[in-house]
Amino acid sequence: MAIRAIRGAIQLDVDEREHLLKSTAELLTKMLHANDIANGQLINIFFTATPDLVSEFPAVAARELGMGDVPLMCFVEMDVARALPRIIRIMIQADLDVARAEVQHVYLRGATALRQDIAQ
Fold first, then answer.
1. Residue 109 is a catalytic residue
2. Is 14 domain-assigned?
3. Into how many domains does the chain fold?
4. Catalytic annotation on 86?
5. Is 63 one of the catalytic residues?
């Protein structure tokens, strides 16, 4: 097995708590399913949010999905003038038996513009 990093991002329509949690859960679930990751394979998950998202910590969505034993950490993205607004990014580190090139990264809604080269 090897530690692999899986990236994902989603653009929210508005900064409202329920929308943020639902969108984060959607992205996280799709990332896990796309890479066939079980809870026991998770090492940790990092969440970032653009500075305009303040209604909730994105990691709360993971806790609500039952990931109470997975180390989670939230960060604020740099406030860059040309950055897309209302973006949540996730990086999952997991113990996977796949080559790095086989990892499926997931970019949803407006976040597909961030990495058109790898968006699924």
1. no
2. yes
3. 1
4. no
5. yes
Spot the catalytic one: 16, 26, 74, 109: 74
Catalytic residue among 16, 26, 77, 109: 77
Cα–Cα distance for residue pair 33/26, rounded to 1 Å: 11
- Residues 19-37 as b/e (b if ≥16 CB within 10 A, e otherwise) read ebbebbbebbebbbeebeb
pTM more than 0.90: yes
Q: Domain of 58?
A: 2-113
- Within 10 Å of residue 90's Cβ, how many Cβ atoms? 22
Look up 107 and say whether it is catalytic: yes
Give 30-61 pLDDT, tens digit per residue.
999 999 999 999 999 999 999 999 999 999 99
Active-site residue, 17 included: no
Q: Is residue 120 part of a domain?
A: no
* Annotation says 4 is catalytic: no
Can you give the CATH number for the domain in which 58 is found? 3.30.1330.40
